[in-house]
Amino acid sequence: RPPVETWVEPPDDEGLLRARAILGAVAQVVHPAEGTFDLQGFDTLVDAIVGIITRHPMREDELVKTLSRWSSADVNVTLQELEYSGRAQVIERYGCRFWSAVAAHYPDKK
Q1: Bridge pairing between strands 96-101 and 88-93
Q2: How far apart are CA 51 and CA 68, in angstroms?
Q3: CA separation (Å) from 5 to 51, 67, 78, 92?
Q4: Domain ranges of the chain
Q5: For residues 100 and 87, what is the distance between their CA atoms, to the nearest angstrom?
Q6: d(CA 97, CA 61)
Q7: Considering the entire predicted model, what is its pTM?
Q8: CA-CA distances (angstroms) from residue 30 to 11, 12, 22, 46, 60?
Q9: Least buried of 3, 36, 69, 79, by fewest C-beta within 10 Å?
């Protein structure tokens, strides 16, 4: 998920090892989720994506992977429609584009 603040960056491997050493069994270090999402049960593809990104902001590459059963042209049209619908926003953090519901707040949105 994209961090709210622009100055937040993901830890490097050494930072993760330090966190594990400090936190031990108290907390688990969780890596980013991978995979695709079920888009069934919605009236439109845009509705399906909004339903997902409202609960789980997605990296653009994850979203494109989820939409891989559609043609590239259909995916591009859907993403443009989603962006212009006013129901989603694109957030850029550490070189990645994330799709999030428009209601989510990101100061200094990039």
Answers
A1: antiparallel
A2: 18
A3: 24, 28, 28, 11
A4: 13-101
A5: 9
A6: 8
A7: 0.69
A8: 12, 13, 15, 29, 20
A9: 69
Measuring CA to CA, which residue among 54, 20, 21, 25 is closest to residue 37? Answer: 54
As a CATH number, domain 13-101 is 1.10.10
Residue type, 81: E
Query: And the tokens for 87?
Result: 């129901």
Q: pLDDT tens digit string along 40-65?
A: 777 888 888 898 898 888 989 988 88
State both tokens at 31: 């890596």
Q: How far apart are the first and last CA of the chain?
A: 15
Lookup result for tokens 């439109």: 44
How many angstroms from the chain centroid is the CA of residue 92?
10
* Paired tokens of 14: 């050494």
Which pair of structure tokens corresponds to residue 65? Answer: 């992977």
- The residues, ordered by sequence, that sit 6+ positions from 16 with a Cβ below 8 Å of its Cβ are 29
